[in-house]
Specification:
Blueprint lengths: L1 E2 L12 E4 L8 E3 L6 E6 L5 E6 L6 E6 L8 E5 L5 E8 L5 E7 L5 E5 L7 E2 L9 E4 L5 E4 L3 E5 L8 E4 L5 E6 L5 E5 L2 E5 L8 E4 L12
Antiparallel strand pairs: 1-2, 2-3, 4-5, 5-6, 6-7, 8-9, 9-10, 10-11, 12-13, 13-14, 14-15, 16-17, 17-18, 18-19
Protein backbone atom coordinates (compact mmCIF):
# COMPACT_ATOMS: atom_id res chain seq x y z
CA UNK A 1 0.00 0.00 0.00
CA UNK A 2 0.99 3.63 -0.44
CA UNK A 3 1.04 6.05 2.51
CA UNK A 4 1.44 9.76 1.70
CA UNK A 5 1.53 12.61 4.20
CA UNK A 6 -0.66 15.41 2.85
CA UNK A 7 0.45 18.91 3.84
CA UNK A 8 -2.12 21.58 2.86
CA UNK A 9 -1.06 25.15 2.21
CA UNK A 10 -1.27 27.54 5.20
CA UNK A 11 -2.42 24.80 7.60
CA UNK A 12 -0.73 22.71 10.30
CA UNK A 13 -3.53 20.12 10.07
CA UNK A 14 -2.20 17.38 7.84
CA UNK A 15 -3.59 13.99 6.90
CA UNK A 16 -2.34 10.55 5.94
CA UNK A 17 -4.29 8.96 3.07
CA UNK A 18 -3.72 5.26 2.40
CA UNK A 19 -3.98 3.75 -1.08
CA UNK A 20 -4.26 0.13 -2.12
CA UNK A 21 -2.03 -0.99 -5.04
CA UNK A 22 -3.22 0.49 -8.33
CA UNK A 23 -5.80 2.75 -6.69
CA UNK A 24 -6.03 6.47 -7.37
CA UNK A 25 -8.27 7.25 -4.39
CA UNK A 26 -7.51 6.40 -0.75
CA UNK A 27 -9.51 3.66 0.95
CA UNK A 28 -9.02 5.38 4.31
CA UNK A 29 -7.38 8.52 5.69
CA UNK A 30 -5.82 9.08 9.10
CA UNK A 31 -6.37 12.55 10.55
CA UNK A 32 -6.28 11.90 14.32
CA UNK A 33 -2.93 13.22 15.57
CA UNK A 34 -1.67 14.14 12.11
CA UNK A 35 -0.77 17.76 12.81
CA UNK A 36 2.35 19.41 11.34
CA UNK A 37 3.70 16.02 10.27
CA UNK A 38 6.16 15.28 7.50
CA UNK A 39 7.66 11.77 7.65
CA UNK A 40 6.01 8.36 7.51
CA UNK A 41 7.23 4.75 7.59
CA UNK A 42 5.51 1.37 7.83
CA UNK A 43 7.17 -1.67 9.44
CA UNK A 44 6.92 -5.33 8.43
CA UNK A 45 3.97 -5.83 10.80
CA UNK A 46 1.97 -3.02 9.18
CA UNK A 47 2.40 -0.52 12.02
CA UNK A 48 2.60 3.09 10.82
CA UNK A 49 5.05 5.62 12.25
CA UNK A 50 4.57 9.37 11.70
CA UNK A 51 6.86 12.16 12.86
CA UNK A 52 6.07 15.82 13.34
CA UNK A 53 6.96 19.05 15.12
CA UNK A 54 5.12 20.69 18.00
CA UNK A 55 5.12 24.35 16.95
CA UNK A 56 4.40 25.51 20.51
CA UNK A 57 7.79 24.43 21.83
CA UNK A 58 9.75 23.10 18.83
CA UNK A 59 9.83 19.53 20.14
CA UNK A 60 9.77 16.55 17.78
CA UNK A 61 7.27 13.72 18.22
CA UNK A 62 6.57 10.24 16.91
CA UNK A 63 3.08 8.77 16.65
CA UNK A 64 2.58 5.02 16.30
CA UNK A 65 -0.54 3.62 14.64
CA UNK A 66 -1.10 -0.14 14.95
CA UNK A 67 -2.09 -1.87 11.73
CA UNK A 68 -5.64 -0.94 10.70
CA UNK A 69 -6.07 1.73 13.40
CA UNK A 70 -6.93 5.37 12.69
CA UNK A 71 -5.76 6.72 16.06
CA UNK A 72 -2.28 6.49 17.52
CA UNK A 73 -1.61 4.01 20.32
CA UNK A 74 1.37 6.04 21.45
CA UNK A 75 2.86 9.50 21.06
CA UNK A 76 6.53 9.71 21.98
CA UNK A 77 8.86 12.70 22.22
CA UNK A 78 11.92 12.28 20.01
CA UNK A 79 15.11 13.50 21.73
CA UNK A 80 17.11 16.19 19.99
CA UNK A 81 19.60 18.95 20.70
CA UNK A 82 19.29 22.45 19.32
CA UNK A 83 17.17 23.29 16.31
CA UNK A 84 16.55 19.93 14.63
CA UNK A 85 14.45 18.44 11.85
CA UNK A 86 13.68 14.83 10.93
CA UNK A 87 15.66 13.87 7.83
CA UNK A 88 14.41 10.33 7.31
CA UNK A 89 13.05 7.07 8.75
CA UNK A 90 14.24 3.51 8.19
CA UNK A 91 14.22 0.09 9.86
CA UNK A 92 17.22 -2.04 10.78
CA UNK A 93 17.38 -5.82 10.38
CA UNK A 94 15.80 -6.36 13.83
CA UNK A 95 12.77 -4.23 12.95
CA UNK A 96 13.83 -1.31 15.13
CA UNK A 97 12.92 2.14 13.84
CA UNK A 98 15.81 4.44 12.95
CA UNK A 99 15.23 8.21 12.94
CA UNK A 100 17.71 10.51 11.22
CA UNK A 101 17.96 14.10 12.43
CA UNK A 102 19.49 17.13 10.79
CA UNK A 103 20.66 19.60 13.44
CA UNK A 104 21.17 23.28 12.58
CA UNK A 105 24.84 24.34 12.66
CA UNK A 106 25.83 20.95 14.06
CA UNK A 107 26.35 17.33 13.10
CA UNK A 108 23.39 15.08 12.51
CA UNK A 109 22.21 12.22 14.70
CA UNK A 110 20.47 8.86 14.33
CA UNK A 111 18.21 7.49 17.05
CA UNK A 112 17.04 3.88 17.41
CA UNK A 113 13.68 2.76 18.82
CA UNK A 114 13.32 -1.03 19.25
CA UNK A 115 9.96 -2.55 18.38
CA UNK A 116 7.66 -2.27 21.40
CA UNK A 117 9.96 0.10 23.28
CA UNK A 118 9.41 3.70 24.35
CA UNK A 119 13.11 4.50 24.76
CA UNK A 120 15.18 6.14 22.03
CA UNK A 121 18.93 5.55 21.92
CA UNK A 122 21.41 7.75 20.07
CA UNK A 123 23.48 5.19 18.17
CA UNK A 124 26.51 7.49 18.37
CA UNK A 125 27.58 7.60 14.75
CA UNK A 126 30.78 9.43 13.80
CA UNK A 127 31.35 11.62 10.73
CA UNK A 128 27.74 12.41 9.86
CA UNK A 129 26.44 15.86 8.99
CA UNK A 130 22.77 15.28 8.25
CA UNK A 131 19.77 13.07 8.77
CA UNK A 132 18.74 11.52 5.44
CA UNK A 133 18.92 7.75 5.98
CA UNK A 134 18.29 4.40 4.32
CA UNK A 135 19.26 0.77 5.04
CA UNK A 136 20.30 -1.85 2.49
CA UNK A 137 19.49 -5.57 2.39
CA UNK A 138 22.69 -6.41 4.31
CA UNK A 139 21.81 -4.00 7.12
CA UNK A 140 24.29 -1.29 6.18
CA UNK A 141 23.08 2.17 7.22
CA UNK A 142 23.52 5.11 4.81
CA UNK A 143 23.46 8.61 6.32
CA UNK A 144 23.45 11.64 4.03
CA UNK A 145 24.30 15.19 4.98
CA UNK A 146 25.61 18.39 3.45
CA UNK A 147 28.41 17.09 1.26
CA UNK A 148 28.70 13.33 1.74
CA UNK A 149 27.08 9.98 2.50
CA UNK A 150 28.57 7.91 5.31
CA UNK A 151 27.97 4.14 5.18
CA UNK A 152 28.00 2.11 8.40
CA UNK A 153 28.14 -1.67 8.68
CA UNK A 154 25.67 -3.17 11.20
CA UNK A 155 26.49 -2.45 14.85
CA UNK A 156 29.34 -0.04 14.06
CA UNK A 157 29.74 3.68 14.73
CA UNK A 158 32.52 4.56 12.29
CA UNK A 159 31.81 4.60 8.55
CA UNK A 160 33.27 1.85 6.39
CA UNK A 161 32.95 4.05 3.34
CA UNK A 162 32.16 7.68 2.49
CA UNK A 163 30.74 8.95 -0.80
CA UNK A 164 31.39 12.62 -1.63
CA UNK A 165 28.51 14.19 -3.52
CA UNK A 166 28.04 17.22 -5.72
CA UNK A 167 25.29 19.61 -4.73
CA UNK A 168 24.39 21.54 -1.61
CA UNK A 169 22.75 19.12 0.76
CA UNK A 170 21.14 15.67 0.64
CA UNK A 171 17.41 15.70 1.24
CA UNK A 172 16.59 12.02 0.63
CA UNK A 173 18.13 8.58 0.13
CA UNK A 174 16.67 5.32 -1.20
CA UNK A 175 17.93 1.92 -2.40
CA UNK A 176 16.39 -0.33 -5.02
CA UNK A 177 16.36 -4.14 -5.08
CA UNK A 178 19.57 -4.22 -7.12
CA UNK A 179 21.41 -2.11 -4.53
CA UNK A 180 21.50 1.07 -6.61
CA UNK A 181 21.55 4.15 -4.38
CA UNK A 182 19.29 7.12 -5.24
CA UNK A 183 20.43 10.45 -3.81
CA UNK A 184 18.15 13.50 -3.79
CA UNK A 185 19.83 16.93 -3.71
CA UNK A 186 18.11 20.23 -4.49
CA UNK A 187 16.30 19.67 -7.82
CA UNK A 188 18.14 16.52 -8.93
CA UNK A 189 18.40 12.79 -8.25
CA UNK A 190 21.68 10.92 -8.79
CA UNK A 191 21.93 7.14 -9.08
CA UNK A 192 25.01 5.28 -7.82
CA UNK A 193 25.69 1.65 -8.69
CA UNK A 194 26.65 -0.59 -5.74
CA UNK A 195 30.15 0.13 -4.44
CA UNK A 196 30.76 3.17 -6.63
CA UNK A 197 31.60 6.75 -5.66
CA UNK A 198 30.45 8.53 -8.82
CA UNK A 199 26.87 8.60 -10.12
CA UNK A 200 25.99 6.53 -13.18
CA UNK A 201 23.09 8.86 -13.93
CA UNK A 202 21.71 12.21 -12.76
CA UNK A 203 18.39 13.75 -13.70
CA UNK A 204 16.41 16.80 -12.62
CA UNK A 205 12.88 17.04 -11.32
CA UNK A 206 10.46 19.98 -11.30
CA UNK A 207 10.87 21.36 -7.80
CA UNK A 208 12.87 20.38 -4.72
CA UNK A 209 13.46 16.73 -3.82
CA UNK A 210 11.62 16.19 -0.54
CA UNK A 211 11.60 12.40 -0.44
CA UNK A 212 12.29 9.29 -2.52
CA UNK A 213 10.50 5.93 -2.48
CA UNK A 214 10.97 2.95 -4.78
CA UNK A 215 8.50 0.17 -5.53
CA UNK A 216 9.42 -3.38 -6.46
Amino acid sequence: MLYAVNVPDSSYQTSLPEYKPGATAPFETITDGIVNCGNVAVDAKGNTYVTGTDTANGSLFLEIYPKGQLSPSETLTIPHTGLADIGGLAFDSSGALLIGESIFESKGAVYRLPLGSQTFTNVGLHQINGGAITVDASGNLYVGGTTSIAIFAPNTTKPSRVIKITGTGISALALDAAGDLYVGTDESISVYAPGTKKPANTFTIPGHVGGIALST
